[in-house]
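Q: Convert this sequence to structure tokens.
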Amino acid sequence: MEAPFKREIILENYTHPRNRGLIDDDSYIKINMNNESCIDEINLMVKLEEKKIADIRFDGEACAICTSATSIMIEILIGKTLKEAEYILQNYKNMIDEKEYDENILGNAIVYNDICKQPNRKKCALLPWWGIQKVIGENYGLADKKN
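A:
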């Protein structure tokens, strides 16, 4: 994917993020994620139904990379089974860490395939994904593979 198209996707998801805004609903699992090395702090709300991700909402203060990564992640993961989500999460992390990954399942998240060139931005791109992985791990016993 060409760099200008990547920037366009990132900017669109930063300025018009999907599912931004928290709601008052106790059926959602809530988690706060923050990046101790910058401003990024997001609150995620995840609704799991029958081992599927039914909905994800978020809010918080974060940079363009973190906000857009959250928005893109939401689009990709809603409707996925937990097994599918775990596979996507692992492939995304592999991409960020410059390991082998399946680019065909990452959708627009592929825009971060060269974030490794900016090591200080890797956490920005990973923060929301770690949050979802933690929610799934804590509620369904799947491995937390953050590190």
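The CA atoms of residues 115 and 121 lie 7 Å apart.
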